[in-house]
Amino acid sequence: MTGFTGLIFRKFIILLLALCFLPLINIAQAARPLIGDTRYEPVIMPVLKQNSVFIDDDAVLPSEPNIPVVKFMRIPEPRGYVEEVNALMFGITTDIQPEHDHYGHEIRRYMMQVGGLGVYEDRSFLIEQIKNVRKARVIANYWKKDLEAKISEIEKSHEGNNEVPLSVRTAFKQNSLAVKTFLIVLQSWIDANERVLMFVYNNPAILDIDYPEIIIYATQERLDFYNIYSNRQTKLKDMRGYHPFEMMVY
Q: Could you tell me which residues come within 8 angstroms of residue 250 by beta carbon, excluding any fewer than 6 positions away?
């Protein structure tokens, strides 16, 4: 094989490999650090005052993400042990395109306004957001079942299979644990948002708002709201530790 022919052959092999891995590249974006600096606003913890709770550090409303409806596309089946294990983290620690993120994108879409100013001022909007947070929970449950089924399938395929490299088995254990942790964080975040919404829904007569101040004269109810809201913000911080969710503000 001449030098020129060898060069062409090598270029052809590189192109062929690129085409083979194209579906995975199209779906999965490079994973970014889970926790660290973010270009989004920091999560503000509430401050308890004598007759109110401050839920922000200024009068500027949070910038809610714009998450549109997308047409979902079928995700190509993983090819080989490595892709199968890595695919568990799609939408969790690995960014994927919205049309392939069947669960995460819809959860974010339903959760993007659940803590907006309207929940304190407009009862119909409040009811809509209660419905949205419950829709998000349904989707999260489907995601959980799907991931658990995939983990179970991988466990069965690895059992007694000497062809699976040790590195893949180790990665699978790590990813399985990461999935379980993520599902707990996801459920806690959704639940915490619903508790805030239900407090507002159940106590319409005692709340007044002068953003960022939520005025509640009743001592116990004011303390209850402070604790519920604090918990929501803590769960939001946890959720934003996952890059695909770091744009969320509630």
A: 62, 111, 112, 113, 114, 115, 116, 193, 232, 236
